[in-house]
Amino acid sequence: MWSQWALQTDLYQLTMVGGYVREGKKDQCANFDYFFRKIPDDGGYCVLAGLGDVIDYIQNLKFSDEDLAYLDSLNIFSKDVLTYLENFKFNGDLWAIPEGTAVFPHEPLIRVTAPLPEAQLLESTILNIMNFQTLIATKGARVRWAAHGDPVIDFGLRRAHGPDGALMASRAAYIGGVEASSNVLAGKLYGIPVRGTHAHSWVESFPSELEAFRAYADAYPHACLLLVDTYDTLKSGVPNAIKVGHELREKGYELMGIRLDSGDLAYLSKEARLMLDEAGFPDAVIVASSDLDEWLLESLKRQGARVDIWGVGTRLVTSFSSPALGGVYKLTALDENGEKMVPKIKRSDNPEKITNPGLKRVFRMFDQRGKMRGDVLFFADEQVPTSTRFRAYHPMYSHVTKSYPKAFHMKELLVPVFEKGNLVYDTPSVHQIRKNTLQNLSQLDAAYKRFQNPHTYHVSLSAHLFKAKQRLLRLAGKTRKPKTL
Fold it and tell me: To the nearest whole percent, how much of the chain has pLDDT over 70?
């Protein structure tokens, strides 16, 4: 689908590209970092997702004749700029943290080093893909955490933000840890397990609920899971499901279970469980849906709800409680006069908006138990202390430091994806990515995963990077004009 997305960008990306070409900057090398500043829902971590689609986008990025004709009709771009776009190909380097990795604010998740207009042109689509999929993967991980090991199914297709949003959401939710999706296209494209039963309309289309259940059981005897809340869950739905369950058993099949989609799920699931058990169906599962999210799911678990599988839709695929991830894409280094890359910094009166300069590497620190203890950013060309104690510095507050003992071991997170425009990365399947998510989150202490006041994970700067940042801030301050009263 990415072959038609060349114009899926903000106009100012193209006007900047045109300006770079006009100013003779089309071969000037630059580095941009993609990162975010704040974790959604005041959480303790994010799960990175979207890199696979970014790779497909870059590989298929080409301006068609129709695209160029449209741009020409805007009367903005010169013939030289249109010729540049006609021959556009990404020739740079891209390093990224693999999908399914737990990530945190202010660390580079993708690092693009390329001729300035090439790196610039990728910005909007990288942000669109990575922000949304990381947001939904994170929500999926939170919902799975609240379920305490119960399977979670993505039911969100019909409430997602358009067809492309639905497909990306299903992919990202699976990466985050849900077990399956109702989205059949996601199943076809990504191999995600698909699940589903029937709607209330099926029941209403028959003269009676019992006839509807019997017809469904006849059609799908191997996978008969019945929606029991169309009329009256406990007086009609569950008793009729049990009756059909006995009829299935006489034919050599077993009732798979029931689904609850409204009402007091804690009360109804406990009563339904008693009824199913007493009728001889202890293995029939209870599926619950109905505007669930991690907080409601956690509450239902505390109330002792007897639910085996959770169907989570709207509040998962839209990240209803926090509908956007504020990821950004910032210039951090520039080749000046053909010399080595010079670190650049964005200064702001808001400390959180000050960027970390230069080309950087990201190392994750693990203690002797294999638990994640913090991430440290280093300049790409500085020596990393792999076998000695060292101190790292808070990105914004000079008085906050963290000491890492010699016994800790470190892992570099950014890996090469494109080198000189060539793909050098073996893109994993969503199943491998999901496995990476579960592994990562198992290495993250529960204190970072709780929903209320989670512990803050440390992302720090090396001493060398911290000092360089302070120096650049001082230099930037000297160039500012004084405020007038």
Answer: 98
* pLDDT of 397: 84
Average pLDDT estimate for 471-485: 70
Contacts of 159 (CB under 8 A, 6+ apart): 313, 314, 317, 318
For residue 424, the tally of other CB atoms under 10 A from its CB is 12
| Torsion of the alpha carbons at 372, 192, 136 and 364, rounded to the nearest 10 | 20
User: Cβ atoms within 10 A of the Cβ of 435, count?
Assistant: 14
Delineate the domains of the chain, giving CATH numbers in brackets: 2-136+323-357+411-456 (3.20.140.10), 144-317 (3.20.20.70)
265: which 2 tokens? 């799920």
139 in Cβ contact with 316 (< 8 Å): yes
Q: Sign (positive/negative) of CA torsion 380, 132, 37, 124?
A: positive
Confidence of residue 479 (pLDDT cuts 50, 70, 90): low
pLDDT recorded at residue 485: 40
pLDDT on residue 168: 97
Q: Which pLDDT score is estimated for 82?
A: 98
Structure tokens at 239: 């008793």
Mean pLDDT, residues 331-352 taken together: 89
Distance CA 270, CA 268 (A): 5
263 neighbors 283 (Cβ within 8 angstroms): no
How confident is residue 484, by pLDDT bands cut at 50, 70 and 90? very low
Q: In what order do the strands lie in the sheet with 285-288?
A: 180-181, 152-154, 309-312, 285-288, 257-260, 225-227
- What is the C-alpha separation between 302 and 298, in angstroms, rounded? 6
Which residue shows structure tokens 């060539």?
422
